Amino acid sequence: MIKSVGAMGFVLAMLLGWSAQGQVAGTSAQLNQAVEAYNSNDLAGAAKLFYEIKMGDTQAANRAQAEYYLAQSLFKMGMYQSALAFFNAVFVAGPAHPYYLKGAEGLIKVAQALRDDTLIPSQINKYYNSQEFARMDPLVLSSINFYVGMLLYRQEKYGESMAFLAAVDAKSRVYAKGLFLQAIIHIRLGTRYNMARDETRSQAEYDQAIKLFNNVIGLSGFKEDQAQKAMATYDNILRLWQLCTLNLARAYYGKGDYEKAVMYYSRIPKFSQDWADALFEMGWAFFLREEYGKALGSLHTLHSPRFGSLFTPEAWILKSTVYFHVCLYEEAKAAIAYFQGNYEKFLPELKNLVESSLPNEKYASLLLKDSLDANDPMAVVPPTIRSSILTSPRVENFRHFLRSLEAEGLAIPQVSEWKGSRLLQELAGVVSMQRNLLLRTAGGFVKANLINRYQTILGFVGHSKMVQLEITTRERELVKAELPIQAQLRGRLEPRPNVPDETFNYWSFKQEYWQDELGFFEYTVRDACPANP
User: Fold this and answer.
1) Is there a contact between 161 and 153 (Cβ–Cβ < 8 Å)?
2) CA-CA distance, 311 to 380, in Å (whole number)?
3) Taking each helix axis from N to C terminus, what angle separates 119-126 and 80-92, rounded to the nearest 10 degrees?
4) CA angle 442, 446, 448 (to 5 degrees)
5) 19-46, pLDDT tens digit by residue?
6) CATH assignment of the domain containing 41
C-alpha cells in the first residue's frame, strides 16, 4: 500500500488563486504590487516583493500565497534550486498550507528540471500523504509516484516500489518507464528466488517480467504510425524499447531458456550502447548450451580493441572456464593471467580508497570533473574502473544538477533588484548548501561504485583460484594416467564453423580486427579431454 503521512488538514477559507485570465489575485496593497509584477513578467521584482510579504505580512493567508508565488517566480527565472527551497517549505508545512499540493507539484517540476532522481524524491517520500495526494492532478501524481517508486527500487524495497509504480496513470508520460521498472524488479526477484532454489517463484517472476517487457514493446502497436504516436506520448520510449530487447534476453536466460535468450541477444544492433553487454551475456548462454566455439567467438569480439576500455573482469573468468571445460589448460591459464594482470592488480589501490576515511565530497571529483589533478585522491582510480562508473546514466544527471547550481550561484548576485537584500543572501546560502549536499551525494554514489568494483574483482579472484586449482588437479591426473600434457597431442580438431548461406564467407583470424568482422567470430575448439584421464 502507498503510505499516508500525517492527518488530514484544513484548507484556509480565503485561498488566493488564478483569475479567469490565469493571473494572480491580490488582497493587500503590497501583495497587489507583487501580483502585478508577477503578471507583467517582472519576476525578479515580484520575487523580492513576495519574499518581503512572506517575511513580514501579518496575515497568514498572504504569507502562504507569497511563499508559493515566490517559488513560482524563481522557477520561471530558471533559478530551480532557489525555487526548490520555497516549494519545499510549502510542502513540508503539510495540508494546513493552502498551497500544499501545489508545493508537491513544484518539487516534481524542479526534480525534472534538475534531473534529480535522488534528493527531491527522498523528500517527497518522507512526507508522502496518500489521502491528500488523491486530490492532485492524476498526471502530476503519476510523476510523483514514479520518482518515489524509482527511489525505493534503488533502495531494494521492491514491494513498496511496485505499489508506487503500479499507481502510475496509463496516460502519464512516465507510464512506459513505470512498466519497465516493474519488469526489472520482477527480474531481480526472479534472480533472488533462483539463488534461494525456489524454482516455482523464480519462474513466475521471470514470466511476469517478460509480460511487462512485451507490454512496453506493445505500446508501439507494431506499426509505424502508432510507434510515432507512442514516441510523442511517453518519455524516452525508443530507448525503453531497446532495453526491453536486452532484458527479454536476460529474463529468458534466468528461466534457463538459453535458445530464446540467444535469439533476443542477437537482436541487439551491432555497435549500439547495449552490444557489449549482449556479447558478454550471450557468451554465457552459449557456454551453458555447450556451444563453446560460439561462446569464445562472442568473447573474441568483446576483447577487440573497440571495447578495450570496458570493465569486463568476468569475461576473462568465463573464457578460462570455457577452455577448462574442453581441457585446454594452457589457454585457460592464459585467460586467468590476463585477469590477474589487468584486474586483480587493482585491488590494493581500491582497498585503500574504499577503506579510507575520506569524506564523501572527496570522491565526487571522479564524476564531476573531466580531468583530475595529480594530487586528487581520485586520480589513482584506474581508467578502466573510472570509465565503468562514468557510463552510468546517473552521472550525467549529477553533472547537469551541479552545472545548474553553479550557474545559479553566479546569477543570483547579478540580479540588480536584489542588491543588498535579505533575499539575495538567503538564496546564495541555499545554493551553497545544496551544492555541498550534492557533492556529498555524488561522492557517496562514487564510493558505492568503487566498493562494488572492488568486491566484484575480489569475488572473481576466488573464481580464478578455483579454476587454477581444478587445472592443477586435472594436469596431475593426466601425468598419473601417462597422458601428454600438450593438448594438441591428445585432442581432436572440431569441424570448422558452419557457414549459414552464400552471403557469408569463411576465413581464419589473422591477428587483426576488421570492423565488419566484429560479431561474427566463432572458434574452432579442440576437444582435448581424454575419455579416462
Assistant:
1) yes
2) 16
3) 10
4) 115
5) 333 445 445 789 999 999 999 999 999 9
6) 1.25.40
Neighbours of 530 (CB within 10 A): 15
Cα–Cα distance between 43 and 34 in angstroms, integer? 9
Q: What is the DSSP letter of 378?
A: G
Cell of 309: 576500455
3-class secondary-structure state, position 432: helix
Nearest to 291 by CA among 494, 31, 62: 494
pLDDT for 405 beyond 60: yes
Does the pTM of the predicted model rise above 0.70?
yes
Residue 425 lies in a domain: yes
Using DSSP's 3-state secondary structure scheme, residue 492 falls into strand
Question: 526477484: which residue's cell?
Answer: 189
Q: Provide the domain limits for residue 105.
A: 1-113
Backbone angles phi, psi at 4, to 5 degrees: -120, 125
> How confident is the model over 209-233, as a mean pLDDT?
94
Q: Which of 54, 81, 113 is the last residue of a domain?
A: 113
Residue 505 lies in a domain: no
- Which residue type, as a one-letter code, is found at position 281? E
- Please write the tens of the pLDDT for every residue from 508-527: 777 777 887 888 888 888 78
- Is residue 495 included in any domain, yes or no? no
Q: How many domains does the chain have?
A: 2
Tell which residue, 51, 55, 92, 57, has the closest CA to residue 72.
51
**pLDDT digits over 126-164, tens only?**
999 999 999 999 999 999 999 999 999 999 999 999 999
Among 472, 487, 502, give the residue marking a domain's end: 487
User: Would residue 226 count as lying in a domain?
Assistant: no
